[in-house]
Amino acid sequence: MSGQRVYHNPVQRGFFPDPSVIRVGEDFYMVNSSFQYFPAIPISHSRDMVHWHIVGHAICNPEWLDLSDIRDSHGIWAPDMEYVDGKFYIYATLRLNADGKRDNNVMRRQLVMVADRPEGPYSKPVCLEVDNIDPSLFVDDDGKRYMLIAKAVQTVPLSADGLTVAGEIRTAWDGTGERCSEGPHMFKKDGYYYAMVAEGGTGYGHGINAARSSSLYGEYECSPYNPVMRQLDPDAPIQRAGHGKLVQDPKGNWWCYYLCGRPNGGKYTTVGRESALDPVQWTKDGWFTINGGKGPSTEQTAPDLPECLFERNLFDDFDSDRLNPEWEFVRNPDNGSWSLTERPGYFRIWTRDGQLNEIRAKNTLLRREQELSYTAETKVEFYPDRDGEQAGLTCYYSTATYVRCSLCWEGGRRIRLVINRNHGEELAAEVEDIPEQPVWLKVEVEKLTRTFFYSLDGESWQRIGVLENCIYLCDEGVPDDPKRHTGTLVGIYANNGGCGSRKAADFDYFRYDD
Questions:
Q1: For the whole model, what pTM was predicted?
Q2: Does the pLDDT value for residue 2 go beyond 60?
């Protein structure tokens, strides 16, 4: 590949699963699943197909999406983005709780949002009562619109504006018969309908299968190159490859964006499922392959487009009156309990009920871990004087599994390093007699090892504790936790531990370096 620009997969790193990418002119836009995090459905932009940055979210108004009681790894699944007649459409599944106790036992419904600009603002979500997963929009040559939905590829006829179900669900393609079909997509080329579906489960057997037909409802012929994407090398650095969608670049070349994961010290996907890119080849008899059927690439020749880099949001000094788009709250925030203006230059959180191991916890503010090794630090002013009050740094996977390093009170001001491995909180280390002054907190992550530090001047750091083999901060490391689809995030939080207090924790900055 000498002499040509190359890139390395994944191209959208960290918790960016289930990519759907479109091109509009010279610009590319991607949406990804966001599950229980808010704002919902990150929208990213690229000019060169390789470098991406978040430009908005599809749902920013918490009154439009109630995630307050949504369980971990439920919520927004597998959005799809399309550009039709000058408007941007996003379809997504709202996965309700698995017990079906909410909304008359409905467990899945589809949401539709529309905007004039790719970054939004988007319209209030319209609900389509179709109880399945992973919708995508397909517009046929005659202008008729269909929502494609799993299992395999089912079609739901839509109204002319794409906002109403207009007919009965009908199966277009049954898939290959592999388990756990998801992520259906369809496109037309040279007189054929090409159907794609992810099968094999979203773990280490994940893949993409394809078929084609001369009519929408078949009969479909399975591709002789199936699976068109799957990782067959168990020792490769990229695994879990599937759930993809094709897109053309401005020069007519075809590419596939797809889901993948990078194992960390074994089959532990700590940073979550990510988005990768590989070229598509067309055979003489009209079939496509992805990366020549070799599975996901780690290094690849870049698209023949001008390189376009974006400045990453690695440092936030909280000087703006708006959060940068990398931040996510766990579920809906309590907007009355955080502020960027109450003390300018600081992110202020007031403690309230709800701890990290409870769904009702509010205002845990996180950003994605994007590499297997990184450093994150913050400076906090927090003066607890009641048992339970706590504020600090957290490496957070879910209410069931996280690490927190926080200032707290128990007969005096102290720092505690606490682990939750899905069996309740465990004290790992603590430092007593912390003086009444600002405190710096830092975590250094080296694959499965996490080392925590504190400082009283921002220069001299003292080690609090070392946590090894942190496999509970990943998709696969807790077998008795039923749904784990998100990956680990890192950030800041404050709560009162149930003591009922409302006390301010002021964070001066947050730095992430990988």
A1: 0.97
A2: no
